[in-house]
C-alpha cells in the first residue's frame, strides 16, 4: 500500500517525496520544527497530507513536556507552534482546518489540565484526522466511480492527488483507483506538471505500482489529445475551494480546464469537504503560494535556464467555477450551479466544520 506517512511511538515517518520515484527514503521526525521544514521543502505535500502531517507535528510537540506539567505550561509554546505550522504553506486550506481542530481542542482544557491528558487527547485528534481523511478518500472514490457511467473511459489528471497527497488512496486518484477496480479505465493520461513534476514523479509512480494503465504526457500535449477526441473525462484535486466553487489547484489546472471546456470534456474536482473554505466568497481571495525560481530554472540536477533568469513561479492557479462540471466529495457529487450546491451542503454540514 502506498503511503506518505505513518505515526509510531511519537515519531512521524515521512516518505521523502523529493526523492521519488528513484529512491524510497523514509525520514523519522520527532519534533515540530523538522516537520514544519518537511512541509516547506515538499518532503510531504498535497493538501490533505499537509494537514495530517501538521496534526501529527502538534501531537509530537506536546510530548516533550514532563508528566508534572499542566496545559498552562505548554500554552505559550502551543500558540507558537500553531503559528509556525500555519506559515509553512499558504494555499492548502486543509492545513488551517487541522490547526483549527487543535485550537478547538485546546479550548476544552483548563490551565491546570494535566499534560498527560493533553498528550493523549492531541494524539487521539491527530490519529482521528488521519483516519477520517483515509475514509473520506475511499468515499470520494466510491462516489466518483459513477462518473464513468459504466463505460471504459480515458481520463486525464494533473499534479498528484493520490495516496501520497492524502492519508492514503487519494482524491482524484482515489476516483481513478475506484474506476479501475470496477474495470472502467482504459487509460489515464498523466500531465507531467511542470515545474515540480508531481505528475511524472508521483502520479506515474502510483499508477505504475498499482498496475493502472497510464501514459505520461507533457503538459502541452493535453490540448492535442483532446482535439483527437482521446480524453473522456478530466479529474483533478484541489487545495482550496471558495464558496462560489472557484478552485485553487496546482498551476496548470486552469489551463487544463479551459482546454476541457473548449473540447467539451467534463472536468471534475475531487476534494474532501475540508478543502472548501466557506469564509471566502470567491477564488481571487485565495492566497497563492509563489515558490523559488530555481524550481523553474532547474530540472532535477540540471540547470535548464540562465542561472539568474527572472522567473515567475506561482505554485497554484484558480479555476473559475463555470469551467467545472462538478465536485466529487465524500458526501456525493455536487453539480452546477456549484455555488448553490455548496450552500446546500454547508447548511447540512456546517455544524461539522
Ligand atoms: C489531494 S491533493 C490536492 C492538491 O493538493 C494537489 O492537486 C496539489 O495541487 C498539490 O500541490 P503540492 O504543491 O504538490 O502540495
TrEMBL record:
Pathway assigned in UniProt: Amino-acid biosynthesis; L-methionine biosynthesis via salvage pathway; L-methionine from S-methyl-5-thio-alpha-D-ribose 1-phosphate: step 1/6
The record's section on Pfam families has: IF-2B
> What residues form the catalytic site here?
239
Q: Where is this site: Transition state stabilizer?
A: 159
Q: Report residues binding substrate.
A: 45-47, 89, 198, 249-250
| Any one GO MF annotation of this record | S-methyl-5-thioribose-1-phosphate isomerase activity
Asked if the keyword Isomerase belongs to this entry, the reply reads: yes
The answer to whether UniProt assigns keyword Isomerase to this entry is yes
InterPro entries on file: IF-2B-related, IF-M1Pi, IF_2B-like_C, Initiation_fac_2B_a/b/d, M1Pi_N, NagB/RpiA_transferase-like
- Return one Gene Ontology term, BP aspect: L-methionine salvage from methylthioadenosine
The reaction(s) this protein catalyses:
5-(methylsulfanyl)-alpha-D-ribose 1-phosphate = 5-(methylsulfanyl)-D-ribulose 1-phosphate
Keywords annotated in UniProt = Amino-acid biosynthesis, Isomerase, Methionine biosynthesis
Give the EC number. 5.3.1.23
User: Which family is this protein grouped under?
Assistant: Belongs to the EIF-2B alpha/beta/delta subunits family. MtnA subfamily.
Q: What is the recorded function of this protein according to its Swiss-Prot or TrEMBL entry?
A: Catalyzes the interconversion of methylthioribose-1-phosphate (MTR-1-P) into methylthioribulose-1-phosphate (MTRu-1-P).
NCBIfam families reported for this sequence? eIF-2B_rel, PRK05720.1, salvage_mtnA
Could you tell me what this protein is called? Answer: Methylthioribose-1-phosphate isomerase
Organism encoding this protein: Planctomyces bekefii
Question: Which lineage?
Answer: Bacteria, Pseudomonadati, Planctomycetota, Planctomycetia, Planctomycetales
> Which gene underlies this protein?
mtnA
Amino acid at each position: 500500500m502506498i503511503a506518505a506517512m505513518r505515526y509510531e511511538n511519537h515519531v512521524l515517518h515521512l516518505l521523502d517525496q523529493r526523492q521519488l520515484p528513484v529512491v524510497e527514503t523514509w525520514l523519522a521526525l520527532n519534533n515540530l520544527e523538522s516537520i514544519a521544514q518537511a512541509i516547506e521543502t515538499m518532503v510531504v505535500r498535497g493538501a490533505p497530507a499537509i494537514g495530517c502531517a501538521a496534526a501529527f507535528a502538534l501531537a509530537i510537540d506536546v510530548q516533550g513536556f514532563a508528566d508534572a506539567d499542566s496545559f498552562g505550561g505548554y500554552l505559550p509554546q502551543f500558540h507558537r507552534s500553531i503559528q509556525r505550522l500555519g506559515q509553512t504553506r499558504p494555499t492548502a486550506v486543509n492545513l488551517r482546518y487541522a490547526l483549527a481542530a487543535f485550537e478547538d481542542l485546546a479550548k476544552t482544557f483548563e490551565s491546570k489540565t494535566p499534560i498527560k491528558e493533553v498528550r493523549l487527547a492531541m494524539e487521539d485528534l491527530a490519529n482521528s484526522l488521519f483516519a477520517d481523511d483515509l475514509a473520506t478518500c475511499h468515499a470520494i472514490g466510491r462516489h466518483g466511480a459513477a462518473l464513468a457511467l459504466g463505460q471504459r473511459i480515458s481520463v486525464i489528471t494533473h499534479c498528484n492527488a493520490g495516496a501520497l497527497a492524502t492519508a492514503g488512496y487519494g482524491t482524484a486518484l482515489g476516483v481513478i483507483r475506484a474506476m479501475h477496480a470496477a474495470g472502467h479505465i482504459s487509460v489515464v493520461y498523466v500531465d507531467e506538471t511542470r515545474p515540480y513534476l508531481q505528475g511524472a514523479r508521483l502520479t506515474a509512480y502510483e499508477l505504475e505500482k498499482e498496475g493502472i494503465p497510464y501514459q505520461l504526457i507533457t503538459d502541452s500535449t493535453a490540448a492535442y489529445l483532446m482535439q483527437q477526441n482521446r480524453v473522456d473525462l478530466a479529474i483533478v484535486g484541489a487545495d482550496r475551494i471558495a464558496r462560489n466553487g472557484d478552485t485553487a489547484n496546482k498551476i496548470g489546472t486552469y489551463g487544463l480546464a479551459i482546454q476541457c471546456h473548449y473540447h467539451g470534456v467534463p472536468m471534475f474536482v475531487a476534494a474532501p469537504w475540508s478543502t472548501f473554505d466557506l469564509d471566502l466568497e470567491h477564488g481571487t481571495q485565495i492566497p497563492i503560494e509563489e515558490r523559488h525560481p530555481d524550481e523553474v530554472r532547474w530540472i532535477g540536477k540540471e540547470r535548464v535556464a540562465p542561472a539568474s533568469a527572472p522567473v515567475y513561479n506561482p505554485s497554484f492557479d484558480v479555476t473559475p467555477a463555470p469551467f467545472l462540471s462538478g465536485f466529487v466529495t465524500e458526501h456525493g457529487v455536487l453539480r452546477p450551479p456549484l455555488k448553490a450546491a455548496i450552500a446546500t451542503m454547508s447548511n447540512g454540514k456546517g455544524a461539522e466544520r
